[in-house]
Design goal:
heterodimer; A: 700 residues; VC0802-like; Rossmann fold; eight-stranded mixed beta sheet; five-stranded parallel beta sheet; elongated; B: 124 residues; alpha+beta; N-terminal domain of TfIIb; four-stranded antiparallel beta sheet; 4 helices; RlmKL-like_Mtase (chain A); Ribosomal RNA large subunit methyltransferase K/L-like methyltransferase domain-containing protein (chain A); SAM-dependent_MTases_sf (chain A); tRNA (guanine) methyltransferase activity (chain A)
Amino acid sequence: MPDFFCTVGFGLDYFAVKELQVLPLTTLQQTLVGKVFFHKEGSLDSLLVLKTVERLFVKVVHVEVEPNIQDSLLEDWLTCKLSHTSKFFSDCLLTWKEIANINSDCAVKFRINSRLSGGFRKASNFQCVSSLVGSVFMQHLDSCVIDVRDPDLEIFLHLNDSFLTVGLQVTKKPLSHRSYLNHILVRSTVCVAMCMAVDLSSKDVILDPMCGAATILVEAIKQFNCKAAVGVDCDPLQLKLAQDNLSTSLAFRHVDLICGDSSSIIFKDQWFDVVLCDVPFGRKFGEFKEIQRLLTSIVKSVDIVLKPGGRVGILISENGNQGELSLIEIVESFNKLDGRRTPEPSSSASVAIALDEEKNRRQECEKVIQQLYAEISELKQENAVAKAGIQRKDSLLMQAQQQWKTLKIDWEQRLELVKDEKDRLSTTVTRLEGQLQISIAEARKSCAELQTVTRQKDEMLHNLQEENSRLKEKYEQSQSQLRQIMVEFDDNKKELKRNEMKMDELKRDNHKLKGQIEDLKREKNKLMAELELLQQQFESSQEQNEAYCRARIQEATQSAEEEANRRLQIWQHEVDSKMSHLITTLEQQLGILKAKSLAEAEAKEARHQEEVQKLKQEIKHHKKEHQDLTRKMRELAEAQWNTINRITSSGTRQAASSFVSSEISDATLPVSNGQDEFLHFHSKRHGPKDPNEPSSRRKK
Amino acid sequence: MKLLTHNILTSKCLKGVTVGYPLGIVAKEVKVNEVDFNPEFISRMIQKVDWPALCKAAENLGHTDELPQTVVDDYENNEEFLKKAHHFLMEIEVMNGDLICPETGRKFPVTDGIPNMLANEDEV
């Protein structure tokens, strides 16, 4: 784990050391003016809440400056020191990333902040040091980029006569920065130091008789967790600042402000545990007597309101010059008060109180002594620094003398060398003079050339001007053309607009037509549907018609058959009756003839026999006739049957027998079209020869 | 101004005033802030404050009979009492009004929570 150091305000290193001493696993290494060096193991979070330090750094380099170093050798020395220690640099960077809570992979923006003081404080040194540090550390800052404005990492370099210190600043803002304070009249670190000086605890009730912006009280509440405090100030403007600070820090829950005079007694006696006060030295109260009066009155009133065993912390100027009271004088004034108060019976002084006051006084003295110790340690350090400086000067002087002697011998040798050199140089000078004359002649030539060049240049200038004017004319022409074009362009624009309007109209028409087409389409679809309906109706009517015809034909065929049979029977009957009648008549005639005369009979028998034969022939003839007729009838019947069969098989609508002239009754069917029109369908059949021909179609 | 602060304010800076305690309160505006309750601190304050003066201040603000007239025994372990004392000492704040000297009747105005205890030169 690398080491750390922190910067502290002037005179606050005592408190910083005190704070660091109580941190676990912390080893103090060195305390210089304004810097405390220490080593820390374990968790580093406790470092971020140090209250009295300004800034915290990871230490990279801290070495003593060699006493005999000169400005010219500074660069080499620095390079040596920095490159020697820069191998620890990556370790330091890791620690820095850990404590600053920065992801180790991401690029770090950094800048270098150099501070030179003492003998090295020169602008030239400053530049040299900055660039040097940059070049040395850049080798180790692979993933880093320079950002002067808003860096994550600030590399701090401080070089004074005694030490070279380089560190990586841990937090962007100083640790002493308090986000909850808007108005800072006393530095937060000083406030904390004052609280530490009076050994403030959370139990204490505090009074600040000249609170100003109440920074001390806010620090006491925020850093020391105090529960109750009162701030007094006579200036309403200061109280406004104090109110603002209290509301930002939420300390208003514990602090009350009062507008009052610090020297007047407005509180109950012996009430406050702690009085903290920043006496406004040197600002408002310049006069020595004024300050003395103020301090005396403050001390007097503080003495009244402070409880026995209470503590007082007064911030005064560090040195007693310019008429300001020194710490010792204040302590003396306390002592005087004590001395005055002890015999006073009115203040209900008991032995216990006296003892308490004595304790109080001693605590004050201890505090003062501690502060003095701190000052002494500072002075000692300064002394040591000064002593080191003097030693360095002595050694420098010795060195200078030795160098002087060697230089003298050196110079003598050099003088001779220089004389030789001078001779050599004088010959060179004469040679150079000759060269110079040649050069002068050349120069003159060049002058003449220059003049011709100038003339040429003038001519060219003239030409250029002419060309320029020509170009100008062209430019004007082109501008007028441009104007024309613009006008045309405007016209075109207008026309375009008109065309667009027309286009819009056409579009609208188109749209309308489309609508009409749609309507027509719809109508067409409707008509198609109707047509289909009609076809269906037509088919159904056809079927009906067909069925009807078939029935009729069958009927007609049947009736015709029956009729034919009947007639045949009648015919047969007639023929039979005629035949029987003829036979009977003939038999009767025969009998009569027999009776008349047998003789005749015998004579006549032959005749008769002839006649019989004749008659028999006749019968035969009749029979033949009968057979013919029967055959004919059968043929007719067969032909009719065949016709009927043919009609049926060919699927014609109408049929009729050969001998039946039938009229098929009208087949009247309602047929509708779009205009609600009815068609009448009628067919007639005449004979078997045209069975397929529909007879007629007419409107009803 | 909290009643804890009122409990320690006096007007004895005025000429002719010997005790100047407790100051009367005429409140025009009172605010209540929520403050974390710390029983130890309140116990210690109860030891220190002038209890009758606190009761009177509470009465002046219209909280009659809300606080017992005397500090109860064993108050350190009486959380209800401690919370009541905490409320009156720390949470109630007089924002605007006057503090009145019991002897001279001189008014000290309270503006925006800040009492003005400055006395004129002729009053001191």
